[in-house]
Design a protein that fits this description.
The protein is an alpha/beta fold. Helices cover 62% and strands 9% of the residues. The protein starts with a helix and ends in an 11-residue tail after the last helix.
Length: 595
Amino acid sequence: MTTPKKSLSILLQLWQFVTPYRGTLVGAAVALILTAGVTLSIGQGVKLLIDEGFVAQSHGALRQAVFFIIGLSLLMAVGTFTRFYLVSWLGERVSADLRKAVFNHVVSLHPSFFESNRSGEIMSRLTTDTTLLQTIIGSSFSMALRSCLTFVGALILLLVTNLKLSLMVLVCVPLVLLPVLLYGRRVRRLSKRSQDSIADVGSYAGEIIQHIKTVQSYTREEHERGAFGKEVEAAFVIARQRVRQRALLIAVVILMVFGAITGMLWVGGNDMLAGRMSGGELGAFVFYAIMMAMAVATLSEVYGELQRAAGATERLIGLLNVTALIPPASDVPATDDLAPGGDGPILALEALSFHYPSRADAAALSDLALRVKEGQSLALVGPSGAGKSTLFELLQRFYDPQQGCIRLRGVDIRELDTGWLREQIAVVPQQPALFTADVWYNIRYGKPDASDEEVIAAAQAAHAHEFISALPDGYASHLGEQGTRLSGGQKQRLAIARAILKDPRILLLDEATSALDAESEHHVQQALEALMKNRTTLIIAHRLATILHADTIVVMDQGRVVAQGTHRELLLSSPLYRRLAELQFKEPEVPTREQ
């Protein structure tokens, strides 16, 4: 079993986020020490109040003691304000920095990471876990330090005030701390389970909301209510166990602490009646004993919070420590090295073999080889699962092949800077990705510094300007989550406008006109043909009519190239292509060899 010391050691990983704000940390520490010292000094004011004021019945001494306590209270208020502000600011700042660090790292991770990690769980770590740490750093941690200082200071003053009663305190302290250590382990385990269960709830809800139209079209609302209710109840059961353990811990500590104080009052009261100590000394001793008791009670409660923080930190640091399988290369080749020209292929795929990390037993590509010349249009056709989309992902280096390589102008793309490589490519996917922002933002996504005139020109080229102008706010219209305010064809034309604006060297079209009606498809096909001119273009096509004029058509099946040529050549040479053509064209023209 993991010891508490090891459990909490994960919190040291947060120190790297605190060190940039050493000045704030020092200021908070000074205010913390001042506040603790002033609080302990009030005990001496209590002693003066009783011995010099009440017992001696001196109005002057009573007035001095009261003013002394008031002055200390003002100092304590100022110190508390300073400490609370600085520590709370530090908690917010560290939480924000940690959230940014995790997000910055997550967006650089390889796609296979997201195959095995749900987006809802990642969002929970970015929000719930960082918010918990903000509370810990901005409140609980300073409370723990203050309680430690108060405990040590009160113990020293107890020894000075009365040695016999202090020895009783020292005997009682280990008995009070024992349940803190025992129950703290359980609290930490339950806290981690509770955070995981909350992440599950958020992930489930996010998935249902994302697919709400499907849920409602299949009238599964009642089922999803019940399923979500079960997720929530499971999280509640774990949270209830955690709360019960913490409540039991606090109750045991309070019982033992105030039981010990009662015992000391009885012993101290007898000593005062016997004349072995003054009433002021007993009052001061009781004050310090209560301060110690409050410190121990606070520590027991904060210990549980620190255990929760350890669980949250473990999850966040785990994300930060994930190593990207596709690291950016440090040596970026000069642009001239890859400039157009020459008879060699711009793209060369050499003996590619690849399987997805989550499906290691099934090859997506097997010994695939292709050459693509500068400015050539190459279409990929074949049944579903043939490896066409996988090839696009390898070209963008979302994955690296297990065997073989892809060369851009003779250079292995694994030797290129990944960002630079992707800047050379624009993709128009079958399902376009739009962001919850306005039209300007979505079209500019591939070229953020583009002028308004360039954006409008790209939209016109994609035949999108007319419907954009008809939106309530034109190009400033927000599109809703995933572009829900647009039709499928309108989304596709925005994606095409984005690719046109980027003006890439290599264009990847994944059935880019699939969502368009006949008239829009005609106009967009013309725009694409203009965009494809003198540009290397790879096209995934399920509808053969859209790629009849491609320079080369490659037929793929089960991750291999089984044939390539022009449309007429493949009708003669490829049974698979001929069958696809027969399915799509009622009366395909099958040329004779004499033709």
